[in-house]
Automatic annotation (TrEMBL):
Its cofactor is Mg(2+). It catalyses: 2-[(2R,5Z)-2-carboxy-4-methylthiazol-5(2H)-ylidene]ethyl phosphate + 4-amino-2-methyl-5-(diphosphooxymethyl)pyrimidine + 2 H(+) = thiamine phosphate + CO2 + diphosphate; 2-(2-carboxy-4-methylthiazol-5-yl)ethyl phosphate + 4-amino-2-methyl-5-(diphosphooxymethyl)pyrimidine + 2 H(+) = thiamine phosphate + CO2 + diphosphate; 4-methyl-5-(2-phosphooxyethyl)-thiazole + 4-amino-2-methyl-5-(diphosphooxymethyl)pyrimidine + H(+) = thiamine phosphate + diphosphate. PANTHER family: THIAMINE-PHOSPHATE PYROPHOSPHORYLASE (PTHR20857), THIAMINE-PHOSPHATE SYNTHASE (PTHR20857:SF15). It is an enzyme of class 2 (transferase). It comes from Microbacterium thalli. The gene is thiE. InterPro entries: Aldolase_TIM, ThiamineP_synth_sf, ThiamineP_synth_TenI, TMP_synthase. 2-[(2R,5Z)-2-carboxy-4-methylthiazol-5(2H)-ylidene]ethyl phosphate binds at T142, A143, T144, G173, V193, S194. Residues 9-196 form the Thiamine phosphate synthase/TenI domain. This is Thiamine-phosphate synthase. Binds 1 Mg(2+) ion per subunit. Its EC number is 2.5.1.3. Belongs to the thiamine-phosphate synthase family. The lineage of its organism: Bacteria, Bacillati, Actinomycetota, Actinomycetes, Micrococcales. Mg(2+) binds at D70, D94.
Length: 219
């Protein structure tokens, strides 16, 4: 837990998912046990992302935190439009986490992608309270992100998690059977994209991950 947020099971939305299917997929996933939703779509502009953030805020209705991937400007604008936006997840090429923290406030959730020891050192050098968690991966090769770094596997993830000063969420090709080994390797949670978004039954897919989390000592 960090800032009162349960990091156990993140749903990161898939930009290949049709917009008319997005609300129902997210609703089913949250009902199935997802503990954080991250809106990610690199194919559309700010105005459309703001609209989608509003849609998901209404669907989620405060049940779990809603984060915006990369776009602090979208998070702020969606908040201004009345959506409940709890924070952001930033990549290494996005605005600095310290700037995001200053803009979003002390109560926001701010995550940062970290794939290398250098990224961990940069995270550790930030003032305490800047970041809440690190997204570490990829665990397996995945088609969701074509330019992903080399796959870490569970062993590679464990090395980074052991060296990190912040909770680490494993992402990239994670399957339900990976949850146990990753949790035992130090994962505070796992993040899933297509395993839920592309499933015939997103709610059932979310439940399979949630059950795997619970089997490792709950959330």
């Amino acid at each position: 837990m960090t800032r009162g947020v349960d990091l156990a099971l993140h749903l990161v939305t898939d930009d290949r998912l049709p917009i008319d299917a997005l609300p129902s997929v997210v609703d089913a996933a949250v009902a199935g046990g997802v503990t954080v939703v991250q809106l990610r779509d690199k194919r559309v502009g700010a105005a459309e992302l703001i609209r989608r953030a509003g849609l998901l805020s209404g669907v989620i209705a405060g049940r779990v935190p809603l984060l915006i991937d990369d776009r602090v400007d979208v998070a702020l604008a969606a908040r201004d439009a009345g959506a409940r936006i709890d924070g952001v997840h930033l990549g290494q090429s996005d605005i600095p986490p310290l700037t995001a923290r200053r803009l979003l406030g002390a109560d926001a959730v701010v995550g940062w992608t970290a794939h290398t020891p250098a990224h961990l050192r940069a995270a550790a050098a930030l003032p305490a309270g800047t970041l809440d968690y690190l997204g570490v991966g990829v665990i397996r090769p995945t088609a969701t992100k074509a330019d992903h770094p080399p796959a870490l596997g569970v062993a590679g993830f464990a090395e980074l998690a052991d060296a990190a000063s912040l909770p680490c969420v494993a992402i990239g090709g994670v399957r339900p059977e990976d949850v146990g080994p990753l949790r035992r390797a130090g994962a505070a949670g796992v993040a899933v994209v297509s395993a839920i978004c592309a499933a015939a039954d997103p709610g059932a897919a979310a439940r399979s991950f949630a059950h795997a989390v619970d089997a490792e000592g709950g959330r």
